Amino acid sequence: MQKFFLALILGSSLFTQAAIAQVATYPNHQIKIISPFATGGIADGFSRIIAQGLSEAFGQPVIVENKTGGGGNIGADFVAKSPPDGYTLIMGSIGTHAVNPYLVKSMPYDPFKDFVPVAFVLDAEGLLAVNPSVPVKNVSELISYIKANPGKVSYGSGGIGTASHLAGELFILTAKVDMTHIPYKGNALAITDLIGGQTQLMFATMPTILPYVKSDKLRGLAVTGATRDPSMPDLPSMSETLPGFDVKNWIGLFAPAGTPPVIVKKLNAEVGKIMQQPAVQKKLESEGAKYYAMSPEAFGAFQKKESVRWGKIIKSAGIKPE
């Protein structure tokens, strides 16, 4: 029995030493960032910016792998079940890590218990755009048009639980209108159908939809934040017509639960340096997005606050998990 306990103690000691060595030498091989959304979107784009910056900082390859589907749940579930060693991360979003539990009946993971927040990356301004065939010039006219055509107007989104979906549901709730939601596998496909007239309107992040507004393929009506965007001061905010309306898409880096705090803090510090580089700040400004420095703990508190806020809105809207 004494030999058994001695072996147990020695084994535990060796395990602890190995764990310490692993943290001390982190990273010593390739890191993978899972992007749970399609290429071309803001989450994918900034996953690649972060990957490049981390690779330069650590001297190790950092790659981005797209695992799409299920409103981001497929990629998130993959990371939730990965080893908690800092080598598999995910660019999570308002959908994957705040609201999907309210919208998806059978969640394969828990966004709070199965992950540890690593670093906030950005929140992005959204834009409400309509197909030019819709005879409206502002939000008030759009509300009147939808009320005059109940059930005949549809809006596209980048998928269940995305900011484009949530903005549409908040619009339905606050404007008291009847619309049909058409979810797509990413904003690019949704915008294509909006241009083609298969849907009539969409809420999308500024960088994905603004080029089509500027080329007159779509008509921009308002930004989705609480105030006007400095880059487009002539475009009103949704809150000017619907007080309290405020929707921004946010993304951030998460790791599997159990990832050593030292590794989490190291990643948080490096992401902060990347996001504050002049070139990255310029890109954020051009895309209507902002970075806020947050510790892992502050990011976790932000995540919970967003989940509570949207949970109340989703329940008030009468949306049932599917």
Description:
This protein is an alpha/beta fold and 322 residues long. The chain has 2 domains: 28-123 and 249-316, 3-Layer(aba) Sandwich (D-Maltodextrin-Binding Protein, domain 2); 126-240, D-Maltodextrin-Binding Protein, domain 2, CATH 3.40.190.10. 45% of the residues lie in helices and 18% in strands. It has 11 helices and 11 strands.
Q: What is the fold's blueprint, element by element?
A:
Blueprint lengths: L1 H23 L6 E5 L6 H17 L3 E5 L6 H8 L7 E6 H10 L11 E10 L1 E5 L8 H10 L5 E4 L5 H13 L4 E4 L3 H10 L4 E5 H9 L4 E5 L25 E8 L4 H15 L2 H9 L2 E2 L5 H21 L6
Parallel strand pairs: 1-2, 1-3, 6-7, 6-8
Antiparallel strand pairs: 3-10, 4-10, 4-11, 5-8, 5-9
Helix pairs in contact: 2-9, 4-11, 6-11
Looking at this protein, list some descriptive labels.
D-Maltodextrin-Binding Protein, domain 2, 6-stranded mixed β-sheet, elongated, single chain, alpha/beta, 2 domains, 322 residues
Short description:
By secondary structure, the protein is α/β, with parallel strands linked by helices.
Order of H and E elements: HEHEHEHEEHEHEHEHEEHHEH
Q: Tell how many strands the DSSP assignment holds.
A: 11
Helix amount: 40-55%
- Uncertain segments are none
Question: What's the pLDDT, averaged over the residues?
Answer: 91
Structural class: alpha/beta
Distance between the termini: 55 Å
